[in-house]
Amino acid sequence: MLMGNCLLLFLWCLIDKSFVSPLHSSSQSRMGKEQYRNMLAHRKHGMMGVHRVKRGWVWNQFFVLEEYMGSDPQYVGKLHSDLDKGNSMVKYTLSGEGVGSIFTIEPSTGDIHALRSLDREEKPYYTLRAQAVDVLTGRPLEPESEFIIKVQDINDNEPRFLEGPYSASIPEMSPVGSYVTQITATDADDPTYGNSARIVYSILHGQPYFSVDPKTGIIRVALPNMDREVKEMYQVVIQAKDMGGQLGGLAGTTTINITLRDVNDNPPRFSKSIFHLRILETSPVGSSVGRVKAHDLDSGKNAEVEYSIVPGDGGSMFDIYSNKNTHEGTVILKKCLDYETRKAYTFKVEASNAVLDHRFLHLGPFKDTATVKVNVLDVEEPPVFSRLSYSMETYEDTPVGIIVGAVTAEDLDVGNSPVRYSVEWRKDSENHFDIDPVEGTLSVIEALDRERHTEHNVTVVATKVNNPLLSSKVTVTIKVLDVNEFPPELAFVYETFVCENAKVGQVIVLCVCVCVFHAKNFAFRCVPKFKQFDGLMGSISDNTAGVVTRRGVFRRLEQSMYLVPVVVEDGGYPLQSSTGMVSVRVCTCNTDGSLLSCNAEAVIFPMGLSTGALMAIMLCIVILLVMAVLYTGLRKHKKKDTLMSSKEDIRDNVIHYDDEGGGEEDTQAFDIGTLRNPKGIKETAQLQKIRPEDEPNRASACMSNEDSEDIRAYIHHCLLENSSPPYDSLVTYAYEGEGSVAESLSSIESWVLEPKEDYRNLCDWGPRFKTLAGIFKEHECKDMEKTEN
């Protein structure tokens, strides 16, 4: 760069000596001639007139070299006027941009110098004003003139890439000459002066793959069949040089990263030709069997692989799912497997690209196939029924023990274990059937009733003998068939009337039949001996018929009422029938059939109350009255008629005693029959009260074995009587009260004993009353001591 600047400085000096000085000489001569003419004109016209003085010096512009490196101020140019005679009487002044700081002028000579180095890229030119002034008077000799000092450019700036480094991409396999990108370098030097800003592009690194246009900077593909799978990224270095690329020009470089975009030019390929997979035979439908994968060297959507099963023998049992994220094919189970039926499956899987590029189809088929072998693993399974569900039928009158049907299950495993059957009990309503554990036959164990349950659902369990933990279930639906056991009946008690002037074949009433058997076809008929009326079978619907007249004239005075027997038969097997009565009264009617008069009951009939209805109402009233009378009478005798309370009627084998008395040997104090039946009070003899004067007789009675035998016989006789309660335990003796002949045995309700009573006879009652006798004897002694004191 220093040599270039020195060369330019040398050229400038030559130009300055050959052009600048002559310019000044000619300018001075021109200025002198003009001044001379002006002086002549001045003398000719005299001093009286004021005339315009024509400017005597002219210049265009000055040039100063940029980046001046000399030690002395750089000479720019010289100002000179024709009025300057060289006697130092003319003074030159300078004003404008940079005067004093950048530019200076010698007042006496008019020489202009640049005080410092200038940069054209910073400011290309400066505008200044110059004037010639008389030294003595200070008056301007000529008008002020404006001129330009232009900074002369030198090649001091290299080309630059302002947007680098660059990135670009092109499809792989692009042909030669394909456009890649365009780059542009800028040079800060003056493009109008010389070749400083003339740029030429060249490629430094990236050949032979790419090329660059030297003038435009367009980068193109230079090598055919560039494969992304071989090399995806290329780095290209471009140089921009000014001075037209000549020696001494300045240069700048930049980097372009070029990426090859993927195209679908590679088909998918399986890594191996055979894939071995395994699955348990008990795996449910939809389970994953395994995965296969075909590799595609492309990327993105071009690498997406679609898997499919080639139609064949084993392919119907499986399906395959393509995973776009992992590019794998997952084999899933489509149907249930059975090891005993088939142990292995073989089929082919095809892998193909989802998106094809027709420019590369000539390279070959874009798909690949592989063989998949699936081995089924044996698992011990529960027994298998011959059907998914069973349906059976039986009549509701089927006797207990009759076989309804049978189920069958078998072990399909290699061991072929025996099977045992059982019924799963879940509800009471399903306990009507039992199953043979070996044969699997279902039989009735309880009477059936179709009116309660029309069908029964029985769950049968089949269990392997070798492995009881393995079992299977099946539902058996047993439909109960109806047996025609209920005859059809008329829905209502029909009562109607017939006009005396009725016509033959006139329908007087419609009868509706109901049947538990749900029969559809009923037969209605009248008793053959009844000539006046007839029944029309099915005249209205399946269960409806009309009673019609057989003759046209009826006389109310001869017979006011007819009872028409109607026989109803169903279509079941065995045939069931019933006979109902239809009451028909004879009434007087108008010609149009409206009722005029009838007997009293017939008059009430149109109002909605028939004879049967009135009788029913009267019967209900009588029943209510009888019930009221009975209820009143029962309330009066409720206490005396009660045998025992509901709380005591526990009917168990525990004997409940609520009485107190003389003990087990005291059997004459009360009558056991009286306690069991209070109504027997009148039939039982009055017992004698125990008094001191009767002590010998009572003691002998208590100790009499004869009386004890009589009491035992009496109790035994009462227990065998039909009137005794049908209990399987002894009666609870809890009755006592005012109506009892034996009086109360309770210490709470006992009568107050007379003070003169003697309890010494208690010693004669036996060892059980010895303690009680001692207590009374001790009290008697204390009373005697008190009396003596």
UniProtKB/TrEMBL annotation:
PROSITE patterns with a match to the protein in the record: CADHERIN_1, CADHERIN_2
Single annotated GO MF: beta-catenin binding
Transmembrane regions listed in the UniProt entry: 613-634
Cell location: Cell junction, Adherens junction; Cell membrane
InterPro entries, alphabetized: Cadherin, Cadherin-like_dom, Cadherin-like_sf, Cadherin_CS, Cadherin_Y-type_LIR, Catenin-bd_sf
Matches recorded under Pfam families: CADH_Y-type_LIR, Cadherin
Membrane topology category: Single-pass type I membrane protein
Annotated keywords: Calcium, Cell adhesion, Cell junction, Cell membrane, Glycoprotein, Membrane, Metal-binding, Repeat, Signal, Transmembrane, Transmembrane helix
Domain Cadherin: 81-161, 162-270, 271-385, 386-490, 539-605
Gene Ontology biological-process annotations: adherens junction organization; calcium-dependent cell-cell adhesion via plasma membrane cell adhesion molecules; cell migration; cell morphogenesis; cell-cell adhesion mediated by cadherin; cell-cell junction assembly; homophilic cell adhesion via plasma membrane adhesion molecules; morphogenesis of an epithelium
Keyword Ribonucleoprotein among UniProt keywords: no
Signal peptide positions on this chain: 1-22
Gene Ontology terms: cellular component: adherens junction; catenin complex
Main function: Cadherins are calcium-dependent cell adhesion proteins.
Protein name: Cadherin-12
Source organism (scientific name): Cyprinus carpio (Common carp)
